[in-house]
Amino acid sequence: MLTQAENQAARRAATDFLTEATAYKAFLQSHDLPLSLDTTKLLDIYRGRLFEQLLAADTGLQARYDMARTKEGKERIQTDTMAGISLKGHELPEQLAEAMAELEVAYQTVPQLNDVPHVALGQLVGYGLDYGSYLDRYTMNWEGKEHARAHFEQLAATLTQWRELVVRMNIAPSSLNEVVERIISVFPQQLPTKGPIAIDEKRLYSHLSYNPQLLEVLPDAA
User: Fold this and answer.
1) pTM above 0.85, yes or no
2) Separation between Cα atoms, residue 222 and residue 166, nearest integer Å
């Protein structure tokens, strides 16, 4: 799963693709075409519209179409007529090819992430070519868990203070375990299973005597 920060970083890395995806969708919408990467399908839809225009203009074709009494017969006339419609001279095929090529090039900028399955360009159609929506599927949602996160963030702040104390003892801790071990050394070796935990006053006094610099980083009770 991704953190929100990782989600945003991945979106930034895929900026070129997000821009081209928006442009590609706008191009299709401007020609009243559905979202698809299948250029053959899209051009067939375009030919279908040309067939409708031809049907309205060609009385002979309209007559044959009307005489076909079955759905299959009408579809056969449409298919045969569309197959003969040349798109030479039409701008759409070339524009569509260019838009698709630009989208495919931009897709190469989509990052491969360790915590997210790599998504094929075709799969993104199911997300409206919105890479951000795909990332959201694999991003942590802290709704309803905010209190737990806040609690452990506070613990992290405490551990950061502990590390500073250990560093002030002229010790360079190599791990979190070492930090914790140094701090808990001022508590009794045997801790009670119930009731409050008390400090080992002698151990603490000894630590402060040998490390008076600790007093500079400990909060003043006053």
Assistant:
1) no
2) 23
